[in-house]
Design a protein that fits this description.
Helix content is 28%, strand content 24%. With 443 residues, the protein is an alpha/beta fold. The chain is globular.
């Protein structure tokens, strides 16, 4: 699948339904039985990007971006980076990149100039689409990026866009995006130089299907996007769009606003880092029942303390769902769904609260020793996986690809074990273990 197919699927179901909404913008409140909201089309400045874009609006934007990329000399297979905070036009451009047959290269807006320069050079980016707030950073690095020949400012995108009638190019291959991952995962002695993770349409299709299989989705979902969609948080949009749901975009992350926006937009799905959920529970502005519309509140990134998880289930509801993945195998290597947090008799399954869940359908998880042997339940070793989630490889780095794929398995770099019931537990990182060994050897 191409990334555009998720957008086009949603548009085929509900072309006039909300697709991308700026959280809290005037006129965007949800109301029962409401018709389509007033659309807000791509304009020439940030003030016109408030409001809601329907699926038809986002489709037209993607066609216009694809035509403009083609006119700018961007060919199928070329790399196009997006550098922006949470912005509906920035995320709409991702689908235009895919329609042009180009490869999306998300850039974390928290990066510094040196890191962005390194990534754009490493990925051979020929086009950068960026928000005006990043213009000083772009000015610092552009002279050292000779391969980058096309710059597009989101705040002036109207002058660049092409016609918005249907159009798309054939892709060069199945790679749809290249994301950054630190080399320190595979080489504990490295300084953490980035590597480009090549993800294919098959990877994203598998991730989307596994998400829809593993967590509750009833009716038309509404996702509250807390983190930038042009980075990892964008992965959660694809299953929502496949169902014709709405993505409500927070322009900047604000835990204090989170409960209010969940209620205002009747949010059904959201993701917060584990630490964010613990902080939310301590927030004085969290009224009882404020998150009652949620079907699933995903958590992950770092371990969730069992006491905090128990409190979340009590105060937020039986909607907690854990995600475990990495860019090399995005998001759903294993899943701890809301129902997995409970025993058959309805009591909290506290013994699973430190687990990252069971391997998802189509994903095989095993524990491997240093020699490539597979270990029995309860034995600790490296977590290795097989299945359609696994990346195509590291961009222009066959040696690193071979290293992380040795013995016919993808090596996650995580240390853990499987229990007798098939639940996966993570106990550390290969880097941490290696550093301990080196420290012991040095003494």
């Amino acid at each position: 699948m191409r990334l555009t197919e998720f957008l086009d699927k949603g548009a085929s179901l509900h072309p006039d339904a909300p697709c991308l909404t700026v959280a809290g913008a005037p006129g965007t409140e949800a109301s029962a039985g409401a018709g389509p909201r007033t659309p807000a089309r791509a304009g020439t400045d940030a003030s016109t990007r408030a409001g809601t874009r329907t699926y038809a609006d986002v489709q037209r934007l993607s066609w216009a971006v694809a035509r403009a990329l083609d006119r700018s000399g961007i060919l199928p297979g070329d790399k196009v980076a997006v550098l922006s905070g949470n912005d509906p036009v920035a995320f709409g451009c991702v689908f235009g990149i895919a329609r042009a047959g180009a490869v999306w290269c998300p850039v974390d807006p928290r990066n510094g100039a040196a890191e962005d320069q390194e990534l754009l050079d490493l990925f051979d980016c020929s086009c950068l689409i960026y928000a005006r707030s990043f213009a000083p950073l772009v000015e610092k690095i552009i002279s050292r990026l000779p391969k980058l020949h096309t710059l597009v400012c989101l705040d002036e995108i109207g002058a660049w866009l092409g016609g918005d009638s249907p159009w798309q190019a054939d892709p060069a291959d199945d790679v749809v995006m290249i994301a950054s991952a630190a080399a320190a995962r595979e080489n504990p002695g490295s300084a953490g130089n980035p590597r480009g993770v090549m993800l294919t349409g098959r990877n994203i299709e598998a991730m989307t299907a596994l998400t829809l299989m593993s967590y509750p989705f009833t009716g038309r979902p509404v996702l509250l996007a807390f983190a930038p969609l042009t980075h990892a948080a964008g992965f959660l949009c694809f299953p929502v769009m496949a169902l014709g749901g709405e993505i409500v975009i927070m322009p900047s992350p604000d835990l204090g606003e989170f409960p209010r926006l969940v209620g205002q937009h009747r949010v059904t799905h959201a993701f917060l880092p584990s630490a964010g959920i613990c902080a939310l529970l301590d927030h004085p502005g969290l009224p009882s029942g404020a998150l009652g519309s949620l079907q699933c509140l995903w958590y992950g990134s770092t371990p969730m303390p069992a006491s905090c998880l128990a409190q979340a289930i009590t105060e937020i509801g039986p909607v907690m769902g854990q995600l475990f993945g990495q860019f090399e195998a995005p998001m759903v290597i294993s899943a701890l769904s809301p129902r997995d947090h409970f025993r058959p008799d309805g009591a909290p399954a506290v013994e699973r609260f430190t687990s990252v869940g069971k391997p998802t359908p189509l994903t095989t998880v095993a524990i491997m020793d240093d020699g490539g042997g597979l270990l029995s339940p309860g034995e600790r070793g490296e977590v290795v996986i097989r299945g359609p989630l696994v990346m195509a490889g590291y961009y222009k780095d066959p040696l690193a690809t071979a290293e992380v794929s040795r013995h016919g398995w993808h090596h996650t770099g995580d240390i853990g074990y499987l229990d007798d019931n098939g639940y996966l537990y993570i106990t550390g990182r290969m880097r941490d273990v290696t550093c301990v060994r080196h420290a012991v050897a040095a003494t």
